[in-house]
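Hi W.,

Here's what went into the run:
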Amino acid sequence: AQSVAQPEDQVNVAEGNPLTVKCTYSVSGNPYLFWYVQYPNRGLQFLLKYITGDNLVKGSYGFEAEFNKSQTSFHLKKPSALVSDSALYFCAVRAGGSYIPTFGRGTSLIVHP
Amino acid sequence: SAVISQKPSRDICQRGTSLTIQCQVDSQVTMMFWYRQQPGQSLTLIATANQGSEATYESGFVIDKFPISRPNLTFSTLTVSNMSPEDSSIYLCSVGTGENSPLHFGNGTRLTVT
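Here's what came out:
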């Protein structure tokens, strides 16, 4: 079985400040981890992934995420938030050999001007 | 990455009617999925659309309620049958292009049942 926890329903941050959106996971075997962003009235857009290799993964729009195996976490980060980053963010995990991920419940990021 | 066109983008339907949602991909893909996203909730997988055979449904979803077609590797439809207000949701088509690749999503169909 695989599962994802996004402990925060909402994250508020001021523009220009660093942001973190938290994600922890549970999966059998090596995890395939993903972050997606959903803007209003749109589908999910892929941001970044961790499959193997460097624990720090860089993705679209200046976002990055750090894979921490001991803490089973994959937190999404950005050094300087923009108002346009305000959206719904989903973390997802799947096991190797499976095409079907399990999604977290989503975290609403609100960046204040 | 695959480009996915999903139609309609939104609809308002009456209770008891059915709506068919179309998903067209710009390239051949092996895996196609249909998800439901209820207000304020995460994505729930309805089924995997299998080319040339019956779809594989997840627990809680049945073919009579959500019939799915997949006549080829670029196209699929999801029908929401005998709708009730509880079916009001966003329905998302998604495709997988490889084991190490993320899923790609259409823009979704926002369904309201009155």
